[in-house]
Specification:
Mean pLDDT: 91
Number of strands: 10
Largest sheet: 10 strands, mixed
Number of domains: 1
CATH superfamily: Spore Coat Polysaccharide Biosynthesis Protein SpsA, Chain A
Shape: globular
Radius of gyration: 18 Å
CATH class: Alpha Beta
Low-confidence stretches: none
Structural class: alpha/beta
Length: about 270
Amino acid sequence: MQKYSVLMAVYIKDNPEYFAIALDSMINQTYPPDEIVIVQCGQITEELQVIIHDRQKRNASITEVPLATDPGFALSLNVGLEACRNELVARMDADDCSCPERCELQVKEFEKNPSLDIVGTQIREFIGTMDNVTGERKVPLSNEEIYEFAKLRDPFNHPTVMYKKSAVQAVGAYSDCSNEDTDLWIKMLSRNAVCMNIDIPLLYFRFDEQTYRRRKSWKQTKALLGIRYSAWQKGFNTTGEFLTIAGGQLLLYIFPPSFTKFIYKNMLRTAIDS
């Protein structure tokens, strides 16, 4: 099978316990990565550094990319992507947990269909510990369904994707903005990227009350509206679709976090029976 790289970014405020879980979940894949590129976004804590060095002693595939200052998440990912030596790159965040078979299943999809540019998966969201799963975020599976879904919502769960480095860089990689993943998907789909999602939850996504609050910031709302407006100007969305997106985002921003939580739990997520 093809070799692949893992791309991660770590910040000074990242939780060391969560980071260790995330990193170990990629080290212990059933089909291990050829390399794990960890971008240090400015100065990080000693606890985070110890975790990286400890894993490096046991796994020579870990490469550190230290940045003197934090240029922001999107630009940090671009630096890390440039450092990846393989065409296939698996994204991973510093506070989630990938299932052991995640990358093996994704690489097999690229093997079966070499024209693929992006392969994502479903996710399970949890609060506190991974046995406290609160829901799943379901994304469309086929290339056609992904294109239709993307007109209104993100068609991929960003921390789950494996993509071709050349396809991402061909569209300018990540833009320096909030909602950099939304912007990337629109750019790639506008260039006729070939995509799929595996219909299995292969990543546990950490979700808490702060997640709702972060998604209510005006900076993030404004950035998303700007991205979607630009997409509408280029013909990616119809006027009605853009107005639907804009109205929904403004409602989520204006109303209290309890309203955002209700929408996420009852309209945007699939509930998990306890």
